[in-house]
Design brief:
3 helices, globular, DOPA 4,5-dioxygenase
Length: about 110
C-alpha cells in the first residue's frame, strides 16, 4: 500500500480540486481519492489531498508527474515505521517540502 499526498497553496484550491476530479475519473487503480484538506494536518506542511494505491509503477509516477500541474507530490509506502516511510522511503515529484518529522512514529 502507498499513500500519495498532493500539496497545494490555498489560493490554488480550485486547481487542486480539478486535479482531484481528474484522478477520480481517469484512474481505476487509485483505491481512494480523499477530499481536499485546506489546513495543516499531521506531519504535512501545506494543505493537501491524499490518494491510496496498492502499488506504484513507473507508468503511474510518470502520469502523475505529467498532470500534477506544478504541485509538489509525496509518494510513500505504508509500514509500521511512519518516520522512515515519509523520509527515507519517500519519492517526491516537484519541490520537496519535507514533513514535520516530530509528528511521526518511528
Amino acid at each position: 500500500m502507498y499513500h500519495i499526498h498532493v500539496y497545494f497553496p490555498l489560493q490554488q484550491q480550485d486547481k487542486a480540486q480539478a486535479l482531484n476530479e481528474i484522478i477520480r475519473q481517469e484512474r481505476q487503480d487509485v483505491l481512494r481519492v480523499f477530499p481536499l484538506v485546506c489546513k495543516l494536518v499531521g506531519p504535512h506542511k501545506m494543505p493537501m489531498f491524499e490518494l491510496h494505491v496498492e502499488s506504484i509503477s513507473d507508468e503511474f509516477i510518470a502520469w502523475l508527474d505529467t498532470i500534477r500541474g506544478g504541485f509538489s507530490v509525496l509518494i510513500h509506502p505504508v509500514s509500521d515505521n511512519e518516520l522512515r516511510d515519509h523520509t527515507e522511503r519517500a519519492i517526491w515529484l516537484g519541490r520537496e517540502l519535507g514533513v514535520f518529522e516530530e509528528k511521526l512514529e518511528a
